[in-house]
Amino acid sequence: MLRMDGLLFPLDEDVFVLDRVSADISEEGVVRYYFGWRTSARQALRLLAPETPFALRELFMWGGPSGSLTIADAPELETAGDALQWLNQELDHYGDLINLTCLVGNQIELSTHDNTEVTMKGSVSPEMDRWAASLLKSLGFDPTAILGAMNQNGGNFLAIQKPATVLGVFDTFEALNKAHPEG
After folding, report:
1. In angstroms, rounded to a whole number, what is the distance separating the alpha carbons of residues 126 and 131?
2. What residues in the chain have per-residue pLDDT under 50?
């Protein structure tokens, strides 16, 4: 078994082959990258310089000794390093049942759902693309190929396979899940 941010997976490459991603750009020039299923806040934050500015906007963690934690329970977290250190401590008690939204680098919003899906949202910028590419690379994907496919198919969800194969393009998350329930 392999422990990945509190989740246990059989040590079988097939478990890590299929993932779900999407991208879109608004008329205002805001890009949203979605990385699904096995992507956590800690994975994304590890890729930032520890001194990167950080502001927690929303937080809900559940399942720990006190039942749940909210933003009112969190200390002041000023940098990505502070946030990562605090998350590492708290997730030992709470597992990965976490929803959070934060602002990193004063310009990119990072949000998680059950800490297994990450969304990055911010103005189109080299920093945004570098962070998204770094995250894809850390997960074993070819960032150039997958980011290119995400941007070419903006607004759609993609089923992808390591390192650089697009298995399908879907107009809704439900359609993707129906076609690839094994994800």
Report:
1. 9
2. 1-17
